[in-house]
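Bit of a strange request maybe. I'm writing a small parser for structure token strings and I need a real example to test against, not something I typed by hand. Could someone generate the tokens for this chain?
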Amino acid sequence: MDRPLILITNDDGIEARGIHSLVDAVRHLGDVVVVAPDGPRSAQSSAITMNTPLRIWKHFEKDGLKMYRCNGTPTDCVKIAVYNILDRKPDIILAGINHGDNTSISVIYSGTMGAVLEGCVEGVPSIGFSLTTHDPRADFSEAMKYASIITEKVLRDGLPKDVCLNVNFPVGVKLKGYKVVRQANARWQERYVVREDPNNNTYYWLTGELHNNEPEAEDTDEFVVKNGYASVVPCHVDMTHYATVEQLKSWDYEETE
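Reply from user aminoacidic:
Good idea to test on real output. This should exercise your parser:
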């Protein structure tokens, strides 16, 4: 009970190199339990499993590290860990290190951040870590160093209520440090490639590229990541736009007899 309890998950699956790098980065900070999908679950956002039975298998246990795999989503993994696996609420929830960045608008699609937001709902300080490459053989050493630093800081100082962190690391550089910034105003310009399968049935394959609407804005995650820093963006689950609540108050309507 003296050591923090650290719950780790991801959306790339329990065999992904990124999650094992994250475990190695933070094991010295507390007792680690991993509950992760049994295979890739990217772009699941905050999806939960409703119509399929969830199953859990013990994947690995050695030297105090326990790892479980689950057939559900990253959000399922957090829920089932908190309510059915752990004997107490974790002190911190970590997701990643994701293979691929979750900067700007990608945060709303990310299974990594879906898990982190679920931790936020549970009232647990939570952090998502992502690396800006999908290469399964990528060098995670710099990301591991700063994941350890940021995790230790959150364990020590906590986070505001209902706030979590979205952390992104550039790849292939020695990091200059990290900066707390905002989400860039960027959008995916998407298109579907039309193909035919061997049976002459048409199918569609999603592709596209990110368009940054403010590439010179120095206070954004896209900018600092492209300039050799890790980005740290505070996020929260309350999606209310409060200024517009006041603006639209005149719309209020009440039935009268």
